[in-house]
Amino acid sequence: MKKQLKLAAMILVLMSIAFTGCDSGGGGGDDTDTTDYAALVSVDAASLDVNYGGTDSASSVTRNVALPLYGDHDTVITWSSSDETTIYWTENNIDYCSINGNVDRPEFAAGDKTVTLTAVISKGGASETRQFVLTVKRMPGTDLQSVTEDAANLEVQYAPGDSASSVTQNVFLETDGNCGTVITWSSSLTSTISNAGAVTRPAFLSGNETVTLTAVITKGSESSTRVFNLTVIETPPTDAQAVAEDKAALAIIYAAGESAAHVKNNITLPSTGTCGTVITWSSSNTAVVSNTGVVTATSTAVTVTVTATITRGSASDTKVFTLTVVLAYNLRDIGPAGGLIFYINPNAAADGWTYLEAAPASTEWTGKVWGGYNTLVTGADGTAIGTGKQNTIDIVTQFGASEPYASRTDYAAKLCSDLVSGGYDDWFLPSRDELNAMYVNLKSQGVGDFTNYLYCSSSEVDANNAWIQSFSYGNQGYDHKFGNPSVRAVRAF
After folding, report:
1. Is-contact 403 369, C-beta < 8 A?
2. Range from 25-34, 138-147, 182-191, 418-427 carrying the lowest mean pLDDT
3. For the chain, what is the HEC assignment?
4. How many CB atoms lie within 10 A of CB 295?
5. 113-122, 202-211, 343-352 — which is least confidently predicted?
6. What is the mean pLDDT of the chain?
């Protein structure tokens, strides 16, 4: 029956009276001396170790262990095990100077076990404790168990930064498993990944390669197969290749419906290429097309050459684009802000603006008040084309953050004044006649995505009413300022 070593040590203390051959310290001392027992205990504790068999060590125990019972200075050592089913001893295991610790290795499926052996070193009332942590290795598995476990644990090992979906360097392929299996590999494309894991990346522009690595795990008569799919990334381009590739792919991005032969709105000039190049631009006429792609209106069509310089490292090349800037918008053209042109001003030179543009339908509001019922707004009575912007300024200046009747912050003029759309923030609520031009040139022509409802103008009739227009029939009239018409902002440029 297994017992704690403490009991065994007590027996050994008695036995040590008769068997002095284990006393490497040279016999008993004088009972009257003043020996520093604590120091002797400390020395023996420091030098104490477990004696392993063969090539075993604390991290790999496969055989029985020998546990000393005495120190060099006649100290007595008692032992205990944290797991007496794995490392244990009986009275029959006690030798004169040590204990033979039996080791029962776990079954293969149970895995390794960690056992702590605790030693108490004592003499003359002084004592110290040492602990030794041992890993008892499991029993070897059958061929089938070994193959199954090594197959489950097998992985391709990648260089730092690489993965199965992005291989740029050699991969490490294990050839033996932890359970004693032999692993052989085969590649579906040895010109890209060899059977030993050497990687040869595809040439630039030839595309990435998908390679299947098949591992066969074998022990005895048992075997299993694992398959790994890897993507090997093509070789990165040289500076010259990168410049040539990005030059070929380079294109100017135009507004919807436009092209190099018909430019009205700002253009987008890419500043980098997909191969890591830097792209700079220069225009032959920056007054019409800036180096950043901003298009400025002129009175006539203008041809402008835009040159891109594509650079990476020491390599550089240029690409030239010839643009025809046609700045004469027609009715219902898409304007600079992404809305629709609904009026062309015959007095553009005198008024300082040429076009009226309606905001996109996505910006439209419904059910909004004019605001300020029973309040007269000074200056907001303009009805003609060209007066809507000042009407809006007058309304917002007088009302401020909220209109005075119902304290609404979302009144029509403020919504338009606060709008930022298509990169522009100069929107306003149209006047009565501007609203009618929007109906005639857009809604009645089936464009602009307007509703068949009442729309609000910025033109005030009196303290209680403002001009509105039906976009179902086109007729105009006025309504209370607390009505709930739709609102579409416009801008002049």
Report:
1. yes
2. 25-34
3. CCCCHHHHHHHHHHHHHHCHHHCCCCCCCCCCCCCCHHHHHHHHHHHCCCECCCCCECCEECCCEEEECECCCCCEEEEEECCCCCEECCHHHECCCEEEEEECCCCHHHCCEEEEEEEEEEECCEEEEEEEEEEECCCCCCHHHHHHHHHHHCCCECCCCCECCEECCCCECCCECCCCCEEEEEECCCCCECCCCCECCCCCCCCCEEEEEEEEEEECCEEEEEEEEEEECCCCCCHHHHHHHHHHHCCCECCCCCECCEECCCCECCCECCCCCEEEEEECCCCCECCCCCECCCCCCEEEEEEEEEEECCEEEEEEEEEEECCCCCCCCECCCCCEEEEECCCHHHHCCCEEEECCHHHCECCCCCCCCCCCCCCCCCCCCCCHHHHHHHHHHHHCCCCCCCCCCCCHHHHHHHCCECCECCCECCCHHHHHHHHHHCHHHCCCCCCCCEEEEEEECCCCEEEEEECCCCCEEEEECCCCCEECCEEEC
4. 21
5. 343-352
6. 91
Q: Is residue 8 over pLDDT 90? A: no
| Cross-strand bridge partners of residue 129 | 120
* DSSP string for 239-300: HHHHHHHHHHH--PBPPTT-BTTBB-S--B--SB-TTS-EEEEEES-TTTB-TT--B---SS
Going by C-alpha positions, the residue among 349, 323, 348 that lies closest to residue 264 is 323
pTM above 0.90, yes or no: no
CA distances to 60, 172, 177, 215 from 147, rounded to whole Å, are: 22, 20, 8, 12
Measured CA to CA, the distance from residue 170 to residue 183 in angstroms comes to 18
Please choose, from the candidates 64, 154, 67, the residue with its C-alpha nearest in 3D space to the C-alpha of residue 119.
Answer: 67
- What does each C-alpha distance from 348 to 25, 120, 270, 334, 353 come to in angstroms? 117, 105, 34, 19, 5
